[in-house]
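Justification of computing resources. Each target in the renewal requires a structure prediction run like the one illustrated here; the chain below, 348 residues long, is used simply to show the kind of job we budget for.
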Amino acid sequence: MTNITHSQLIDYLLGMYEYSSEAIFFFDKNNTLLNLNPVAEEILESEALEAMLQGKEKSICLSCKGYTNTEDLVTCQNCYFLNPQQDFSSFQVYLETKGKGVLPYTASFHTIDKDEGINVFILRNLTKQLETQETLFRNTTIKQIIKAQEDERKRISRELHDGVAQEILSSLVDIRVMKYLKDPEDVAQKVKHIETSLTRLLDEIRSMSVELRPSSLDDLGIEAAFRSHFKWIEKNYGLIVHYNHEIKGKRFNSEIETVVYRICQEAILNALKYADVDEIFVHLYEKENKLILDLKDQGNGFDVINRVSRGTGLGLFGMKERAELVKGTFSINSSVGKGTEVHLEVPL
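Resulting structure tokens:
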């Protein structure tokens, strides 16, 4: 390590203070501003800057909108200014800035002179970092969505080929054979066989149609669509859905009905895949000008915080995204061995 003189060190520190990209503030034990560097001056609104330069107590509050702790994204409780003895070596804070609105900063607030009670407050703009993370998250999510769409198309294609196409081919062969049959009894038997095959084909197409988008949702509304879907679930999978509703056939905005239906559909599909249950409870009702959907099962459950993604991992993400489309709130309460509760609230 190259030795430098005390004078050189002071010059370096002063240069860092003057030309740093970080905003640096010095406060005394009464939280009165002692000094700030040029970057700090640039980011502050004139009213806040003037109050701080005049030495007004807690003038930083004119700019600070709160910080992030373990309970809230933005809060002023147990403020870093009021509790400097706590560990505020690294945290996130939101400031009202000059011409750019409220921006996120990574911050450090700590004492540099215990005898005099001098504290330093250092800020680094997080906007670019968060934009990078958001872009990465968006790109990753888009790739997952595209993969999920392609997987769904493969599934539908496979069902069309293995089910619908095979049934049509079988019926076509039977019709061609009929041209060579002489005995009326053989013809009648072949017609019966074709009729059975086409009935089976019709049921399969209806099932696929309901799975893609039920006509009852558009024609009769969410309540009727649920009844139809739950009967189909019970018939095809054996899962009993205890459906309780209190909307009496009322219709809602088409987008809201679609979101509620899809979230319920996805939640039941997850229960079928992972919960290992024979029944699920669904409650649809209106309260305080909100449409509310509750689903409960007594199945395997999972650790919500340390969840290990199974399948595409887009199920829960998709439900949350759908809820946000209609300004709704979506939550899941679950723990291992104690079942799962899904709660959706959509403002009307």
